[in-house]
Amino acid sequence: MQAREEKRAERTRALARRAAAYAAHGAAAGARLAEHGLTFLELEPGAAISGFSAIRDEIDPAALLGRLHSEGHRLCLPVMQGKGLPLMFRAWSPGDEMGRVQWGIAEPLADKPVLEPDVVLVPLLAFDAHGFRLGYGGGFYDRTLARLRAIKPVVAVGIAYDELKVDAVPHQSYDQPLDWVLTPSGPLRCCGP
């Protein structure tokens, strides 16, 4: 119970830090992500990469996804299946028509094929050197990464402003750590729990 309360308090602080980072950097932060790309992962040609549709003041990975698409990678975006369930991923390309769901999140339409990503780009509110992240509290990415890691190798890359790094993120046994975090200043390899 204590970890949940710590997460709730940290979430409030993290939202304020992220709003300040967004105000300071805006769209330039997303452009910097694209400049770095995912070259640090040494991906196979045509790897399946899951992005996300940024909401509110999240750092926007659209330019990065555009670069990955031009490099020949297969892209997909998450689709919510319901509370308490892992995310599903549907194929997506820049310019595709999208549907709007809960919280104003844009999702690929139901006629797009399902993909199982090799790399999952993960939005977050805070992260630490061990790869623990603070999300919105729904557990969608933790359930999703646990499911994917049970069936195949998958790399989780957090997408964040540099200002969102903290000394330690409160975590519980079911929290799935990130392998990397990509910030505007470059990639950071997580050292594991």
Give an overview of the whole structure.
With 193 residues, the protein is of the alpha/beta class. Helix 2 (27-36) packs parallel to helix 3 (62-70). The longest helix is centred in the N-terminal third of the chain and has 24 residues, at 2-25. The chain has a single domain (2-189), classed as NagB/RpiA/CoA transferase-like (Rossmann fold, 3-Layer(aba) Sandwich), CATH 3.40.50. The chain has helices at residues 2-25, 27-36, 62-70, 140-151, and strands spanning 48-50, 74-79, 88-91, 98-100, 106-108, 119-123, 126-127, 133-134, 155-159, 180-183, 186-189. The mean pLDDT is 92. Helices cover 28% and strands 21% of the residues. The strands form 3 sheets. Strands 3-2-1-6-9-10-11 form a 7-stranded mixed β-sheet, with helices on both faces. Strands 4-5 form a two-stranded antiparallel ribbon. Strand 7 (126-127) and strand 8 (133-134) form a beta hairpin. It is globular, with a radius of gyration of 16 Å.
